[in-house]
Design a protein that fits this description.
Blueprint: E1 3-5, E2 8-10, E3 16-19, E4 24-26, E5 29-31, E6 36-41, E7 46-48, E8 51-53, E9 57-62, E10 68-70, E11 73-75, E12 79-84, E13 89-92, E14 95-97, E15 103-108, E16 111-114, E17 120-125, E18 134-135, E19 144-145, H1 158-161, E20 176-179, E21 182-184, H2 196-218, E22 222-229, E23 232-239, H3 246-250
Parallel strand pairs: 1-4, 2-5, 3-6, 4-7, 5-8, 6-9, 7-10, 8-11, 9-12, 10-13, 11-14, 12-15, 13-16, 15-17
Antiparallel strand pairs: 18-19, 20-21, 22-23
């Protein structure tokens, strides 16, 4: 059993490589390593609350049954998370972005994967991709935990385009089909920019407010005053009684 905590591993051929059961890697920074950021060979291991960036592979779990990978920031690696020949693995609460792929699953029968941001490649694997929905803080900061968030840079990811559920707006109305064996039944709805419909509604309300103000003001006595300034005449629109006195108006 190994425990690695609060270390910085940078600029090596590999970051952390451990074997055997019961390893815990947490609260660490692993970056700029040429090959693997974190590689674990063995059962019942944990990688948690780590900052894993700009490595070759970010994390490898190989023959790592009953292992957990959670609450990590994994970004800008050549490869994301590889899980191979590992059953009963849990991958959750990870921020996975800007990798060639986020999660690569091979040769596993049981895994629970939820509340991550990721893109996925699958080969011969079947996993459960959601829980709940249930109260809790999801990867987007919302108050419901369900499945994962599926987004893409072009704005066409499932989470970016799906209509939200009426009863649980944080969750998509439609499931996300990854492949024939894998479905995220409760993908998170991405809270992106307001829809065109919402923008038109906002514009309509703004125009209505302007119209109401105009009607209120127009009920006040309007005066058109022509004033002489030397040789020039100019017109003043007055909405109200106190812009100039009646004597002043009569003299113009």
């Amino acid at each position: 059993m190994n425990r690695v905590a609060q270390v910085v591993l940078e600029g090596n051929m590999n970051g952390i490589i451990v074997g055997g059961a019961g390893n815990i890697i947490k609260d660490s920074v692993v970056k700029n390593n040429r090959n693997d950021g974190v590689a674990i060979y063995g059962r019942n291991n944990v990688v948690a609350n780590c900052y894993i960036i700009t490595n070759g592979y970010s994390v490898k779990l190989l023959e790592a049954d009953l292992s957990e990978l959670h609450d990590n920031y994994i970004a800008r690696n050549e490869r994301g998370i590889l899980v191979d020949r590992s059953d009963d693995v849990r991958v959750y609460n990870n921020r996975v972005e800007d990798n060639v792929y986020g999660l690569f699953l091979l040769n596993l029968n049981r895994a629970l994967i939820y509340n991550n941001s990721e893109n996925v490649k699958i080969g011969g694997a079947k996993a459960v991709w959601s829980v709940g929905p249930a109260p809790g803080t999801n990867i987007l900061g919302g108050g419901v935990v369900g499945g994962n968030v599926w987004i893409s840079p072009d704005g066409r990811g499932h989470s970016q385009r799906c209509p939200p559920r009426r009863d649980v707006p944080e969750i998509c109305e439609t499931p996300y089909v990854i492949d024939g064996n894998n479905v995220d039944k409760a993908p998170l709805a991405y809270p992106g920019p307001a829809s065109k419909g919402g923008a038109w509604l906002l514009l309509g309300l703004s125009l209505a407010a302007v119209l109401i103000v105009f009607i209120i003001l127009s009920r006040r006595r309007a005066e058109v005053l022509r004033r002489r300034d030397g040789k020039n005449l100019y017109t003043v629109w007055s909405l109200g009684r106190n812009v100039c006195s009646s004597e002043e108006a009569a003299s113009i």
